[in-house]
Amino acid sequence: MASVRQQTNKTGRGGLVTRALLAVALAFVFWAWVTASADPDMQRNFPSVPVTLLNAPAGVAVTDSAPRTAILSVWGPRSTMETLTADRFALTIDL
User: Fold this and answer.
1) How many angstroms separate the CA atoms of 2 and 23, rounded?
2) Best label site of 42, 56, 61, 95, fewest CB within 10 Å?
3) How far is CA 56 from CA 17, 60, 70, in A?
4) CA dihedral 56, 61, 62, 65 (to 10 degrees)
């Protein structure tokens, strides 16, 4: 009867080091890809955006204390924030 060689799942020391190096290399590549493709949030300020008064009740007068312009602060993804302009926003005060 011929002898049959039995296979095992054990790897040699060289295989373990190779797998560890491959895992570190793949982790670095994944980290670099995520860092490069991320679109972090940012804040952008738009100074002097005009303010419009709406629905002023009859018999009520608005004094000079009503703001004519305001500073608008917006948060969002960097790719979106870089394309925004102040004329895309309308500030209103509903009385």
Assistant:
1) 40
2) 61
3) 76, 7, 19
4) -160
Q: What is the CA radius of gyration of the chain?
A: 32
CA dist 16 and 19 (Å) reads 5
Q: Against a cut of 0.70, is the pTM above it?
A: no
For the beta carbon of residue 16, count every other beta carbon within 10 angstroms.
11
- SS3 of 93, please? strand
DSSP single-letter state for residue 86: G
Distance CA 89, CA 7 (A): 70
Q: What is the pLDDT of residue 70?
A: 92
Report the distance separating Cα 52 and Cα 67, nearest Å: 9
Query: What are the residues facing 73 on neighbouring strands?
Result: 45
Q: How many residues does the chain have?
A: 95
Encode pLDDT of 83-94 as tens digits. 999 889 999 988
By the 10 Å C-beta count (0-12 exposed, 13-18 middle, 19+ buried), 65 is classed as: exposed
